[in-house]
Amino acid sequence: MPEKKIRVLIAKPGLDGHDRGAKIIARALRDAGMEVVYTGLRQTPEMIASAAVQEDVDVIGLSILSGAHNTICPQLMKLLHEKGMNDVTVLVGGIIPEADIPALKQSGIAEIFLPGTSTQDIVDFIHKRVA
Amino acid sequence: MEFSGNLYHCLVPSSGAMRMSEQRKGSTQTVPPSEASSANREPSAKEQAWEKNTLQPTLEQSPERQAEFTTISGHPIRRLYTKADLPNWDPDRDLGFPGEPPYTRGIHSTMHRSRLWTMRQFAGFGTAEDTNQRFRYLLAQGQTGLSTAFDLPTLMGYDSDHPLSEGEVGKCGVAISSLADMEVLFDKIPLANVTTSMTINSPAAVIWAMYLAVAEKQGADWKKISGTLQNDILKEYIAQKEYIYPPEPSMRLVIDTFEFGVKNTPKFNTISISGYHIREAGSTAIQELAFTLRDGLEYVEWGMRRGLDVDQFVPQLSFFFNAHNDFFEEIAKYRAARRIWHKAMVERYKSKNPRAWALRFHTQTAGCSLTAQQPYNNVVRTAIQALAAVLGGTQSLHTNSLDEAWALPTEFAATIALRTQQIIAHETGVTNTVDPLGGSYFVETLTKEVERGAWEYIDRIDAMGGMVAAIERSYPQREIAEASYRYQVAVDKKEKIIVGVNDFVAEEKPLDVLQIDETVAHRQAARLKKLRADRSQAKVDRRLNALRTAAKGKDNLMPFLYDAVKSYATLGEICDALRDVFGTYEEVAIT
To answer: Is the Cβ of B10 closer than 8 Å to some Cβ of chain A?
Structure first.
């Protein structure tokens, strides 16, 4: 029997439209055999949480480059908790100052991937986490 | 403060494209055109003798490091370029002289010997007061022009107190919600003397109306003021994605600014047709060049359809390119850009005005090339990229700061970036002569190849019915996504090396980065509340209604926007009035 595919939601929250990273990750995870749903641009935390429930995903990947991570991430984590999605792995990639990382992890973000991360490292992290 | 380093950066920094992947062969992807040229080579007897007597024995003893050498865009590069690579090349026709067609060597006869490029550092963060201070600091350090970065709510036409602005106010640029903010932004900066560039697109006409209102208030003559409005909506649909309205009404707003500019502000660049963001989104150099120039042709054609005279409005169109890591490919790109524009203006639009033939451009070093790892290396990258822009004949330049893969730049980092330009200008000697690389077998061959590759794309987009039609079928978006992914795969496989990222990795200490004051949003909200209480609401309503009515018809909207901003209607209110009439745009997301 084939193994169940890992389901991932790649989301681009906030007003920023720079989607190069989100698209590359979506494609790399798909090439690594995962099922990937890409939300498109300008998703509010509510939209992302609802999509995560609807798509029943194992992982949510947020691409944030605008500096709005300290606002967006805690909001999303709270909504996921309210919807009972406590076991979903939430990852963040983008421009995140080092000083902000501890608080983001504290809020429940599983890992933060900074510029320069290879797509393989992200694939490996997900496999390990969602095995 | 650069968008590039900050926003254009992605989860993974990347910067160009690679060899074609097997699965894509036969698709629409452009094949690098240079193989064809090398196939036609007829090396001289002396070159053949060199190959036999000197080269072959060397290769037998020690083979080259790689089987194939390519630019960062995946464009193949030969071992050696000689006369044989330029069989039909005519220096009088293809190179010409500086300040004359086809402008390969530059648009001025003396280039940087008479006037250096404008050192224009992009800056903007926090409130108008914060950015006004940084502007005045940069001018005091010898910067010669201003360039404004707006925050995301402003770029998307939302006021700072809109719910969607939460978390974004003042973060990657300055928050401007009304004329009152704009007055503070340019306080004690004489717009009659300082040229200002404004990086704003979908709401460009509104922000420009605010700028003109400040200029008027300062007593500056509109006929004399100069600066640049980015106002390039096409590349928003293609790459940067900060659009509000659908293409048709968006293009109308752009052409309204052209028409208004011809009559009222003849020295102002009403648009900066931008390849920068296309490149940052992951395109190759040829794609950047081709899509940008084809965007330029699209604007020209829409302007002509409005009844504007090419020879009158085209001199007010300017360009904006990226300066990426691959030194010679970038130089070839700028030289080819001038040649293509000249040819298009003369042959396609029968322009009679040399001022419309000469492509003027701003350059910014590649934000997406900056690494978060070993950030001081970014000073070196930026210096080399800036040098390419100067050797390519740029009219103005922004150099990125070393810390922009982490945050907006500190004053320390921004100062080094400016000093980098000053060192190139005053210490290296590269400004002593015009187009010092002209006549190089390699540079001339690469210029020809890049030019040919761009024309192939332009022809393809013409066949689709133009750029708006191509965008609607996601053609440039798909080409860029492909190139961007190919490059990432090459970096992941270490076929392309990024120092400090996939090789030469080291442990390091964290950098001190700029923290944006989290009270900015509250201060902006309080200011907006006061503004709305102090102004005449009846006047605001009247002018917004007049704008709505005009938007439904065909009148030029600039005078209506000007009246609306002068009543202190906010950016969000004005953009909402146009949303009521034009609707909004949503793209089909492709991955």
So the answer is: yes
